[in-house]
Design a protein that fits this description.
The structure is a single chain. The chain is α+β, with helices and mostly antiparallel strands. It has a single domain, classed as Alpha-Beta Complex (DNA Primase, Chain A). Helices cover 24% and strands 18% of the residues. It is built from three helices and five strands, in the order ααβββββα. A five-stranded antiparallel beta sheet has the order 1-2-3-4-5. Strand 3 and strand 4 form a beta hairpin. The structure holds zinc ion. Zinc ion binds next to loops.
């Protein structure tokens, strides 16, 4: 049972916007030990951790926008979408 603290109406609720800004895709990819990770000045390339393909350049992530796209399985989204895909769950 969740109790809301007085004066903190958002206590216990996750601020998804803040999480998306605070957590980098690079950190998440490292957390999942993604293979073939290469970092360029503006983007990351790696083997896609979602469809587990064999190509090292199918998965691209923009460092500036903190979003990703896979050219093979067409998965795309932000850092939370990646975690949801990796954990096989979805955001409510
Ligand atoms: Zn993929």
């Amino acid at each position: 049972m969740h109790k809301v603290e007085e004066g903190k109406p958002d206590a216990g609720l996750v601020d998804f916007g803040a999480v998306k800004q605070a957590v980098s895709l690079e950190a998440v990819l490292c957390h999942y030990q993604v293979q073939g990770l290469r970092k360029g000045p503006h983007r990351l390339e790696s083997r896609c951790p979602i469809h587990r393909g064999q190509r090292d350049d199918s998965f691209r992530a923009s460092l500036g926008k903190n979003v990703f796209h896979c050219f093979a399985c067409h998965a795309s989204g932000d850092v939370l979408d990646l975690v949801a895909a990796m954990e096989k769950c979805r955001l409510l």
